[in-house]
Design goal:
The structure is a homodimer of 519-residue chains. The first copy, chain A, folds into three domains: 7-60 and 64-103, no CATH class; 164-198 and 206-370, Type I PLP-dependent aspartate aminotransferase-like (Major domain) (Aspartate Aminotransferase, domain 2); 403-518, Aspartate Aminotransferase, domain 1, CATH 3.90.1150.10. Chain A is built from 17 helices and eleven strands. Chain A has helices at 7-10, 36-55, 67-76, 90-102, 122-134, 145-162, 177-192, 196-199, 220-228, 252-261, 284-293, 331-334, 349-352, 390-399, 402-423, 456-467, 494-518; strands spanning 170-174, 209-215, 236-239, 264-272, 297-301, 326-330, 342-346, 428-430, 438-443, 473-477, 480-486. In chain A, the strands form two sheets. A seven-stranded mixed beta sheet of chain A has the order 1-7-6-5-4-2-3, sandwiched between helices. In chain A, helix 5 crosses helix 14 and helix 7 crosses helix 9. At the A-B interface, helix 2, helix 3, helix 4, helix 5 and helix 6 of A face helix 2, helix 3, helix 4, helix 5 and helix 6 of B.
Chain lengths: 519, 519
């Protein structure tokens, strides 16, 4: 156990006093760590390391380290139990920050083509620093005034591209897409089965069994939601998809009707724009018609693709989004801010209060006033919530939406170019026409059949990750592994992509050789 | 609508080119916002504003502004739709940061005595900056190697004070206490009603109705969890509390037995250390015995008080915590890091996987390896997750646990002093003996009966908030409003507290006068 009264552990205080902290007298406890000057020194040290990191445009992926090794490295950086603590241990802090930087996926490098989070806009990170120091949890107006009005501003900015009736819709920020999907489906459940909140499962006795219709290719958080909310994963109805992994619109009505015949009441249909696996955009305009007609809550998981709203050129891919009862958008994906910042939109403001109901005198006011009207705690899971919107708004305020739109357009255009390149490479198979910035394909030299060597692509991906030059991901498509790239960095050029293909070829060939010699 | 092709909106790029972004050539799109040098300038500007803010030790609370006014102020700070954008608009950024700072609760001031979040340790904010720039979502080892091993390290550090079998317990970080409580109760539900995940409510047909036992004074997130998880808020069994708002241990068995007689199966009992309203510590040692005997999942909401684990002097208040099946701790409360950083502990590692079950080929590996063993996505709500643990670990690594322990001890000791002061002030009524750093009381001059003027305390609190010198909170105790202070700032002195009492008196007297003259 640590001995807190040992003189050594006291030395972190300016006066190194061994007496008990004096209560009621300033100076009795003054850890240097709260000193504004020390804050500056820490911050400047971090900036210097980060600036160097941002300036490094070399091609690199991930320096994958065995957890047990990294664990020991990290432990060695910790101050010892009885060690005397130097007042400002710059060396140790530098080593920690450098280790943190070095062991991450190098999201700002052109070697990073692997996932849906990005090398964040650095200014957004700076605002996160401000948010952390001023610490304004924003579920309540009084605790975060600016974040709360800024949420309204950003809601209105987005609504220019949605077209809902002003003042009648709602937007809530929450901690990630999975949580936002869950919140929306909960609102749907409470809307369609209003007694379930108070009565629980018993409210369903004698009723049709609630069910949720989703794409065969929906994000795992949707099925999870069924498990969490007492709906049951078995009550997930899978809507068939077409070759491009979009919900096949012709099969929607028959699937819904077959489910109804089995005694299920589908209360919510979830579409995706785009899907996580291949970035497919479901036909939301038509789905909006069907759900309206059948009185089904229409939720759109737009974690990845709803950000295309900001692009005049690409917005057409979201035609019909105004028909959604709710949709989500992860700003930490295609709006390039640090994780996490998810926006959850409701067409009908009144229904945004439907997800939760509660009383808590220490926070909720009995009577609403001009301030509490801006509170969001009744509409999101979090009680304490980071002011998630701030880093998005500040960048938007300084640079306008063009910064986001141009970057999105460039990424999508580049993905199309990468697709065209693959079309001309006979040893590669493309698996879909990319709709945004996600592209899935297989390396199949010499007409290798994908089924003959099912782990081939996954093994290529693993070895490429291990080699550390590129970071790409993998995905199952129709039961077989495939390679997946996500272009989040606008500094990636055709040359980088060609280098990746070379590396895939070399890795694949080595694997094939190894496998032949194994026989 | 914005016109993205207008020359003005293009001027944010270094070359101000009006042609389409060139694909495949660097330089075609190079917003200065990604420039490392510009990052430094933005960051230095922020540091200068924050250093000034941290150095301000004046007594101040909250500058409460009407949302409509603040909304207009914020809008004016945004770049206009067709406005030409200056390359680095320092003036605008400074104005935004200053507005952000000025409109928050002044958590670093001695005037802040109001809530459970703190003026965060500045170094923790610096690490948040690093986290935002390196952007390593940490639900998967490969995406955030250091955060994932550091979670193990911090779990072990805490376990020195818990005493579970090493390697057999688990700790998961998640986005806030409400979500952590929900996760734990979901794990409990899935453990005790394993078919509910897949079958939903139907799994309960013919069974006893599931119910959760909680303190009469539990946090609202617990009751919400019953609504969310298909248990139903009606199946919340309230355990009576004693004068100090702790669960009254003598009444636990009779209450549980009465519930069983009504056909309820209590599968989970939730205790608090301490409660949000008054900071009461439930008798967890005894509750641990009862739940073990009755085979009930024992969850402890230690959002506020479980941090006392790090103090050798105060740890005794958590005697019995090792009996919990799960407990949570908000490091953004009593470990003084920025919101949010919640730690969720499970006694039995295997049960930590019980909260969620899912398949997703693009993230989850079919076969686990040394890396995936460190993944947490199967154990937390988030798919993308901030590396929440980092800012806690870095401070811990540099300063050891003594920094936290000493501050906690000082805050609790100071609260006791404040209580003693109130005992000697005949016009104040204390409502409990504080167990940590939360203190509730009423101003009742001239033996005013609390019931005679039920909104008196709430009105005092409101006016004090409005005056902007102090920020305190309010709470309902036994149906009547009360004043509530939470001491999170170690720089608060007796003199500050006495100033607050003077202000309460003056405010109360003015209200009484006004009320008399109204008659």
């Amino acid at each position: 156990m640590y001995a807190i009264d040992s003189p050594s552990s006291k030395s972190i205080y300016a006066d190194a006093s061994t007496k008990q902290p004096a209560v009621g007298k300033r100076g009795g406890m003054a850890p240097e760590v709260f000193d504004p000057q020390v804050f500056r020194e820490h911050a400047e040290l971090a900036i210097t390391r980060l600036e160097k990191y941002l300036a490094d445009s070399s091609i690199r992926g991930l320096a994958l380290t065995a957890p047990s090794v990294l664990l020991q490295t990290a432990k060695k950086l910790m101050v010892g139990e009885y060690e005397s603590i130097a007042c400002l241990d710059k060396e140790r802090l530098t080593a920690i920050i450098d280790l943190y930087i070095a062991t991450g996926i190098q999201v700002h490098s052109p070697g990073y083509m692997g996932r849906q989070f990005s090398g964040a806009i650095p200014l957004a990170g700076v605002i996160d620093l401000v948010s952390s120091i001023v610490n304004q949890p924003s579920s309540f107006y009084e605790a975060g005034q600016l974040p709360n009005v800024v949420e309204r501003i950003m809601a209105d900015e987005f609504n220019r591209f949605i077209g809902w009736v002003p003042e009648q819709f709602a937007m809530v920020t929450t901690s990630g897409g999975s949580l936002a999907n869950l919140t929306a489906i909960l609102a749907a459940r409470n809307d369609k089965f209003p007694h379930m909140w108070s009565e629980g499962a018993a409210a369903l006795t004698g009723q049709l069994r609630p069910a949720i219709a989703v794409s065969q290719d929906a994000h795992y958080s949707i099925c999870r939601a069924a498990g969490i909310l007492g709906i049951g994963e078995e009550q997930i109805i899978r809507l068939p998809v077409n070759r491009n992994k979009q919900i096949c619109i012709k099969q929607v009505r028959p699937t819904l009707e077959a489910a109804a015949e089995r005694g299920l009441k589908i209360f919510c249909l979830v579409a995706s724009v785009g899907t996580t696996s291949v970035g497919a955009f479901d036909p939301i305009d038509e789905l909006g018609e069907i759900t309206r007609e059948k009185n089904i809550w229409f939720h759109i998981d737009g974690a990845h693709g709803a950000s295309l709203l900001v692009s005049d050129k690409l917005r057409h891919k979201l035609r019909g989004i105004e028909k959604a009862d709710s949709f989500i958008l992860d700003a930490h994906k295609m709006l390039f801010v640090p994780a996490m910042c998810t926006l959850l939109f409701y067409k009908d403001k009144a229904k945004s209060y439907g997800a939760f109901r509660q009383e808590a005198s220490y926070v909720f006011e009995k009577e609403s006033d001009i301030y509490t009207e801006f509170d969001s705690a009744e509409k999101n899971f979090e009680c304490t919530k980071r002011p998630l919107i701030m880093n998005l708004w500040v960048v938007w305020a300084l640079y306008g939406k063009a910064l986001f739109a141009d970057k999105i357009e460039q990424l999508c255009q580049f993905t199309e170019s990468a697709y065209q390149i693959l079309q001309n490479e006979p040893d590669f198979e493309t698996l879909h026409h990319p709709e945004a910035n996600i592209l899935c394909f297989r390396y199949l030299p010499e007409n290798l059949c994908a089924w003959a060597f099912p782990d081939f692509q996954v093994e290529i991906r693993k070895q490429i990750r291990q080699a550390g030059k590129f970071f790409i991901s993998k995905v199952d498509i129709d039961g077989i592994g495939a390679l997946r790239v996500v272009f989040m960095n606008h500094q990636i050029e055709v040359g980088h992509f060609r280098l990746l293909l070379d590396e895939i070829r070399a890795t694949g060939q080595a694997l094939l050789k190894g496998s032949k010699s194994d026989d």
